[in-house]
Design goal:
This protein is of the alpha+beta class.
Length: 135
Amino acid sequence: MPNFELKIVSDAPVEDVIELYKDAGWWEEGWSRDAAKAMISGSFRFAGLFRDGQLVGMGRALSDGVSDAYIQDVVIRSDLREQGWGLHLVQLLITELKSAGIDWIGLIGVPGSENFYRKLGFSVMKGFVPMKLQC
């Protein structure tokens, strides 16, 4: 029986992080191990789901630690999805942020993830448009 552990960490195996980004289809050509390492260390909180010590899920919270925060890069390895781990992972990040006094928490989800995030209390921000700089 596999042993699962969900926790906030300050470091994680970089190769496992890269594999999760690739599994989600988010890994950008040209990124390096250093980029993955910086994503972990640069996060206000980094939540990891570990199975027998291997990182199999993750989520990040970006914040200045005072006012607001954004949750991003929530991913569970594809063969472990639909088991509730994503909900637990985001709940852990929310708890951590609220414990730090941060109560404005936003995110941009991939299309089709609306119901997942609604279960956690998120709603569409009417009157706001998510945007990205095209480089």
